[in-house]
């Protein structure tokens, strides 16, 4: 298999991984937009962190894997993943709540809030 074939295959896998990541993120955003807190980790409540831990861990794991793929292809880091990571963590008390933030994300991504 030639180098070009390997790179083409890796790029196809990267594209599929990015689509899967976006699908998982959209599902989580929709759930959050309905009123569930924890995806963005804005509060220190242990129960919500534990509730969202599997989804967040999967998103982080997949995002890191995509970044490895992108690095191998000489591409910039995965912007959607970087933006997701940047949006997580404590915020000021007057910041919009997680459901409102999730709705804004869905609008920005051009996705229905179903």
Please explain how this structure is put together.
Helices cover 69% and strands 0% of the residues. It is mainly alpha-helical and 114 residues long. The chain has one domain. Helix 1 packs antiparallel against helix 2 (46-72) and helix 1 (3-33) crosses helix 4. The mean pLDDT is 93.
Task: Please count the helical segments.
Answer: 4
Q: How many strands, what sense, and barrel or not for the largest sheet? A: none
Helix-strand pattern: HHHH
Quickly give the structural class.
mainly alpha
In angstroms, what separates the terminal alpha carbons? 44 Å
How many independent structural domains? 1
Low-confidence stretches: none
The percent range for strand residues is: under 5%
Strand tally is 0
Mean pLDDT: 93
Question: Cα-atom Rg, whole angstroms?
Answer: 16 Å
Taken from the alpha-carbon principal axes, the silhouette is elongated
Helical percent range? 55-70%
Give short descriptive properties of this protein:
114 residues, mainly alpha, 69% helix
Secondary structure layout:
Elements: H1 3-33, H2 46-72, H3 79-87, H4 98-109
Summarize the structure.
With 114 residues, the chain is an all-alpha fold. Helices cover 69% and strands 0% of the residues. The radius of gyration is 16 Å and the shape is elongated.
